Every structure is written in structure tokens, then in C-alpha cells.
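Rotation project, supervised by the postdoc (A.L.). Task for the rotation student: set up a whole-complex structure prediction and record inputs and outputs verbatim in this book. Inputs entered:
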Amino acid sequence: MSTYFDELAVRLRERGVPEETVTATVADLTAYLAESGGDPEEEFGPAADFAQQLGAAPASESAAESSTWRWTADIFVDERHLNEFGDQGWEVDRVDATGRFVSHRDEDNPQRWEYRREVIARKGRKALVEELAPDGWEPCGTWFFYEYFKRPKAASLGPEAQLGAPPRAPGKGVFLSRRFFLLVGFAAVCLVASLMLMINVSGGGAGFVVGLLAGAAGGALVALGSLWFQARRRDRSG
Amino acid sequence: MSADRRASWLKGVLDLLVLASLTEGENYGYEIAKSLAESGLGQIKGGTLYPVLNRLEEAGLVAAEFRVTERGPGRRYYRLTEQGRSTLAEQGDLWVAFDRSVRSVLAKGGIQ
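Outputs recorded:
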């Protein structure tokens, strides 16, 4: 029995598992076997194979297996870019607190993915997930009122969904549309104009315009701030 | 054939079963395997269970703590994290929906 665990410890160390973890793992498995009885190889399988399943992969091996890429896009173009990069083998795992898509690609065996974005309506996220699950859609991230779903293209294309030589990850990680810049520009103009009017105009008929513009700009800022804090809170609780 | 089929079913749902078994409190490897076996799922080998526990820990769905015992070599105790709890709720619902679909199709074939 000790020969088995000696070999397991050696194999785990070879895979870069810290000494403290190796000791705890061997002790835990020894205790397991003391209760279950029987032969260690019969219970856990060959030591080399078991170590491979338990231990971290060697650095070179794990780097070759997959690569992670974080990127973001505004809501006017996010679905288009998701499908574009999905076709290049990028699978989204989640949306982080700053709204970036945390995605990875299996470099050895890249597959195409397709995506869709849905509004979380009154019936809630759970109902939405259940509604799309029969068609193979799996949730992969939430951003405020939006839920993102992914589906491997292998479901519809079969072996053709596998990519031969995918392109390198794009050099940039932010994709913003002209519509997004126009919206931001409009909000900025409203803010500046309202501030100028508040400073230069006192009372009179301009009060309504000032109030309108200040309200629009203030509302936009409050909404943006609120969305930001919600995202931060959701990320911390996740 | 029958054993292979059961093993295949279990492979697809073992992570959820482990998470579910931890909802009542922390537990260690052998007791987790034992409680699943007592639920009628058959004997689950350590070589099957531990890689699943390892993946769940790496994903942050369970947290593990090694404790030295007075007698014996010590054990690693696993407990469900908040992330594990929400993943269990979400993925468990999907499994139940899948199970309903399977039952529905089998019922059409006369299997109740």
C-alpha cells in the first residue's frame, strides 16, 4: 500500500503540486482506504493516471491546452462580436464585474461557438434559462438586464464545427460602435449645456430647459453609477 | 452493458450529486461516497470521486480543509461554497428538466 502512495506522491510532485498538498492528499487517501478496505490500485486506479487526474498539469502542458482572453463590446455590437469570435473558437465562461467577456479557447482542439443575448423579463432568469435549455443554449454571463447564452456549433454542424487553424487572439479587447460614441457624446453635450445654463441663466423661461437637460444628464450619471455598483456587488457575491 | 450505462449516467451528474450531498454540512471523501452508495447509486470508487472533488474545488464550488485527527492520518473535509450552492440550484434545475424530457419520451414507449 505504501508503495502505491509513494509513487502517487512522486507523480504529484512531478506535476508541480506543492509539498503540503501532496502530504495532505496522501494522508486523506490513506484514511479513505482504511475505511473502504481493499487494494489502493483497485480503488484509485494506477498511481500515474490518478496523479494526472488530481494534480495540476505541468506549466507547459496547461499553457498549450487553453488560453484566456478578456474583452468587451457595447450592447449595439456585442452579439455580432460574440458570434464572430465564437467562430474563431472562443468560448465565454462568464461576464466579469467590469462587463468583460472572460473567454477561453482550447488551443489543441478548438471548437466553434454561437451566442445569443436575451433580455431578462419579468418571468426571471431561471425561467429564461429553462426555456432555452431544450435547444442546447447554456447561460454564460449576466450583464444587468441581459443574459448571454452559448451553444457549441457541433450541435448543428457536427465535425465541421472543429477549427483547423484558428486566428490569433485579436490585439485589442474593447469593441465600441459608432452608436455608442454618439450616445456618450449626446450625454456629455447635455451635461455641459445644462451646467453652462445653470451658471449663466437665472430664472425665466430657460428654467424648464435647464431642468430638462440637467435631469437628463443627472439621470444618465445616476443610472451609470447604479449599474456600476450593481455589477461590483454582483461580482463580489459571485 | 448495464454497468457501463450506469457509469455513463453517473459521469454526467456526479458533480451535482456531490454538491447536493454537501448541502447538509461538510463531509469527507469516504463518507460522501458512502452516502451516495446508500442512496442507491452504487459504489463509487475513490478514483472516480476524488478527481470530481478536485475539479469542484478548483472551480470554487467547494472549499477543502485538511484536519489532522487524533487517530489515523488526517482527512480533507469539503464544504459547499455560496458559488457551489447557486451552481447546484441552476444546474440541478437543468438536470431535472432533462430528466422530465427523458421520462416523457420513455412514457410514450410504454415505460413508466
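Student's summary: The radius of gyration of chain B is 16 Å.
Supervisor addendum: The mean pLDDT of chain B is 91.
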